[in-house]
Amino acid sequence: MAIARVEEKLGLYAEVARQLRADAIRCSTAAGSGHPTSSLSAADLMAVLIVGHLRYDWKTPKNPANDHLIFSKGHASPLNYALFRAAGAITDQELMSFRKLGSRLEGHPTPVLPWVDVATGSLGQGLPIAVGVALAGKRVLRAPYHVWTLTGDSELAEGSIWEGLDHAGHERLANFTAIFDVNRLGQRGPTELEWNLDAYAARVRAFGCEPIVIDGHDLAAIDAALERARRADGPTVVIARTLKGKGVSFVEDKEGWHGKTLDAEQARRALAEIGDVPSRTFPTLAPEPWQAPARPAPRRPEWKTYGEPVATRKAYGEALAALGAARADVVVLDGEVSNSTHAEDFKKTAADRFFEMYIAEQQMAAAAVGMQVVGLIPFASTFAAFMTRAFDFIRMAAISRANIRLCGSHAGVSIGEDGPSQMALEDLAMMRAVHGSTVLYPCDANQTARLVGLMAEQGGISYLRTTREKTPILYADRLDDFRIGGSRVVRGGRPDDAVAVIAAGITIHEAIKAADELKQTIPVRVIDAYSVKPIDTAALVDAVKATGGRLCVVEDHWAEGGLGDAVLAALAEAGVAHQITRFAHLAVREMPASGKPAELLDAAGISARHIVTAVRGLR
Amino acid sequence: MAIARVEEKLGLYAEVARQLRADAIRCSTAAGSGHPTSSLSAADLMAVLIVGHLRYDWKTPKNPANDHLIFSKGHASPLNYALFRAAGAITDQELMSFRKLGSRLEGHPTPVLPWVDVATGSLGQGLPIAVGVALAGKRVLRAPYHVWTLTGDSELAEGSIWEGLDHAGHERLANFTAIFDVNRLGQRGPTELEWNLDAYAARVRAFGCEPIVIDGHDLAAIDAALERARRADGPTVVIARTLKGKGVSFVEDKEGWHGKTLDAEQARRALAEIGDVPSRTFPTLAPEPWQAPARPAPRRPEWKTYGEPVATRKAYGEALAALGAARADVVVLDGEVSNSTHAEDFKKTAADRFFEMYIAEQQMAAAAVGMQVVGLIPFASTFAAFMTRAFDFIRMAAISRANIRLCGSHAGVSIGEDGPSQMALEDLAMMRAVHGSTVLYPCDANQTARLVGLMAEQGGISYLRTTREKTPILYADRLDDFRIGGSRVVRGGRPDDAVAVIAAGITIHEAIKAADELKQTIPVRVIDAYSVKPIDTAALVDAVKATGGRLCVVEDHWAEGGLGDAVLAALAEAGVAHQITRFAHLAVREMPASGKPAELLDAAGISARHIVTAVRGLR
């Protein structure tokens, strides 16, 4: 390139960087809160990226050829929004609405803005999600896009960052570039490694990615690094030494300025230092025209039907296989336990869309979120107990308005000998407390298949809880009637039932045994509340009315936050709490140990024998 | 050492290893479940450790000079228990009770056994906890013990492992040694890195620890490595190449044998291969006699008292400072936000007992668990939203019967402009669903101080939820009356109250405003349910009786799993559900955005105005 051209380019970058700095200060000062200094450190990096390297059709955020840019350091939202302003995606007026009620420009980015893929702000999440977007681009879509993620240095202390880089390295994601903004200062003081760029480089290299170490304020160096990153044949990490607050002398590299805004006078001085910057729109690079190859039209999945006892986890795997054959947009991820969750069965029909995530549940959840960004339908599974590992990612996925499906196997004490570390006893509480979630808990294989089918169509975060042990088949007919928000009466159902037992999953079978034993003396209605959230309030109200309010809830879960709480909340919401005359709640209340499944159900007080006693006590 | 001595030593190691292998097979075959092959790969490593290097007084597991050995690969419990047998801690008869109901030898180790520090079995946790034990030994106790942790290779995919090694490196924990049992095979097939020991060594080195790469079946090499590890001046990781199932030809290095036991005939053949091994007790090394220096006797903490509005998070920090001055066994950990949680105030009285955990919430929780192993009283804090990152560690801490105190700040929509990524709206649900947990949510600074004091005395997992904004002082008297399981009536309290509003934390102040506004027309009882778990059932029942069952619960939390569910569950358990004639539940039901705290409380429908409307509707 001619020297004049190079100088012109660098001049443009500098101009963009000045505007980004000025706008980050202006909007955060107007808001009176936010993170200007964390924005300033990365302004040069982002200026070069946005006008020199990012290929993005700002008019069509859903263009499948668009690059992706994820601010893993979500608190640098002033910079993120300033970028959108520089690209012409938002007006200066909207920029100045930052952090105000009703504004799309929230304190941390969310996909309320069409150019934001996912919500960030819980540190250490954007990078692993970017890995998921890159993985989908490389292995499923074969798309031309490159995935860029801006990462702060404080968040490099999160293990999830290294899970992400490990997977980027293992999968050789040449379409992935992380940009580490190493500004040395965290919230409360220096970071662990400060400006030890060699240490970061060694870590990055050891995790299978190519480090590119630069001065993050040298525009030519940034330009070269990003060019090298896009052309590399593996994943890259640009490790940029930066100054927090760069460009404003009185905050530059100073402690005590994290998450603080400049007041009006300070902002005036800062803008004077940066120079007179009329806020304007800069030309950016469009992606090459590309259309994803047409997928075969989805077919109706051919669900297997079952007659003999089968574990619901096995039915989950076989349902995934049916989905895999029927739809080309379903992808499956598993945390190195696919022969236990039975997610491995998906490989029989769609091996190329199965992702082994090894024992890295955070990365698994993040990759699922990343894959739905580009329109795929991810199902991710591990033992339900280990879903707790990914709770922060699941919580954030809801803020991302992500559509992901999770399956937790080996729920409850009924797993038996492995003991409490492997028993999920809090997963219903966790998943109920996710905004807009759907929580399903099947008790037989035929039901499981249909619920998996419903999950594929369901938006938001949906969760399926499966059981280790084989369970008898209860359902041979009306299989198309299962629905989210539904339930099924499996014993009784007459207006003169004396007691209603409400259960789901493994305890349905105990409840049925109890009801059958009591048949001659007490007519028991057993309700299969397979949809724990939303729960079938109408069926519960009907049971209250029929039984004169005699209810027994039985669950293989701690007493808090699960089915018992869901039933009471629904009845109270429906205004019939006062009709609950007698209430028994059988749940796990003592720490379980090891034993045979039946022994442990009994020891926990949730076996048929205990249900019989409880029901008798309710008469 | 004379050649004869060396040969004698190696012969002893070999004999121990044979017994460990034989016992691991015998007990798992008798149980019919468990992980013999994952035990066999590490048998040589553990044989050399237990008779040659571990300094442990098996008769006195609480001896403060004892080394610590934590099986991060908890599924190798047959090996762990075989070690206990070889050390004479348990009998052969007890060994054979493995995984049976009532046995202390659960499927994965738990501290039901006095030689087990913590429960493991959720992979990637034992190592970070071991870092916590080592950190306490080095920085607080100045104890002579060395901490050893046996880690599987599959679990090295967990980011938490790298958080742990990062901290071990940063703190230069010379008393810490991890032993990587690199047997190449995970549950469902090969691990990501298989036998790429160089890759592991590079990662370990990059994270600040010294790698020692060996053949994990070469007894002399193991001996030398463990010796070097103990003498090193920094943290060490022995990276051992091993064979899964080593010592039994037909399972050695074979896929498909994870978590599978040998049947009786296979066990017979295996034991024949291993050789005739009479199960016996071997001599082990005792620790050097050492007593911890006497600590100053604990004094009664001098709680600050408050009159002007103060944020409960600030009162938390100042209460920690009071505790730090009064007790030498309190330690404080924080996830790089101590100027927000105000945990930094602890440094004013006990700077040497403050631990900066950077942004690594899993490691923070793990270190807290490790520190309580050696008798310290840890308080760990971060934003309540980010506690979700550590949920699996908290869940496991309950199985570890650990006594830890957690504080989550910035709860609810009332944080304001930062937006939903920083708002904890599921923490009450999460913490209620932890076995044996205590969940506290103060509304004023004086109450906060006293609850912190109660937490210091409380066993199990206790959790304090604090608020970002300053809140008025409600309590000036009876400050010693706050108790776990208590509540306080802050408005009304007469037998003819018309409606009871149950709230906690920030919503108490909204409820008071509402009650005061309604005073002339509707007598409202406002109950401060600061102890969310256990909740004050008697006070709730009394409110039901007084008001004819007219209740309104208001909480800055999702509708699921929080205060509303807790109230209904308590009343149902108390048998008075039928007396709840009218129930209103004001909680967060839509995804919040950014705005001012008051705006967001109002937008979520939990402000005074909404309470007034709800109470009127209950009349």
Descriptive overview:
- The structure is a homodimer of 619-residue chains.
- With 619 residues, the first copy, chain A, is of the alpha/beta class.
- Chain A contains 22 helices and 19 strands.
- The first copy, chain A, has a seven-stranded mixed beta sheet, with helices on both faces. Chain A has a five-stranded parallel beta sheet with strand order 1-2-3-5-4, sandwiched between helices. In chain A, strands 14-16-15-18-19 form a five-stranded mixed beta sheet, with helices on both faces.
- In chain A, α1 packs across α3 and α18 crosses α22 (608-618).
- In chain A, 66% of the residues are buried.
- At the A-B interface, α7, α8, α12, α14 and α15 of A face α7, α8, α12, α14 and α16 of B.
Q: Which stretches of chain A are low in confidence, meaning pLDDT under 50 for 5 or more residues running?
A: none
The mean pLDDT of chain A is 97
Cα shape of chain A:
elongated
Largest interface: A-B, 114 and 115 residues
Oligomer type: homodimer
- As a whole number of angstroms, the C-alpha radius of gyration of chain A is 27 Å
Strand percentage of chain A lies at 15-25%
Biggest pleated-sheet summary of chain A: 7 strands, mixed
Major sheet: arrangement of strands of chain A: 8-7-9-10-12-11-17
DSSP summary, beta strand count of chain A: 19
Q: Which percent bin holds the helix content of chain A? A: 25-40%
Ends of chain A: how far apart? 89 Å
Q: What structural category do the secondary elements of chain A indicate?
A: alpha/beta
| SS element count, helices of chain A | 22
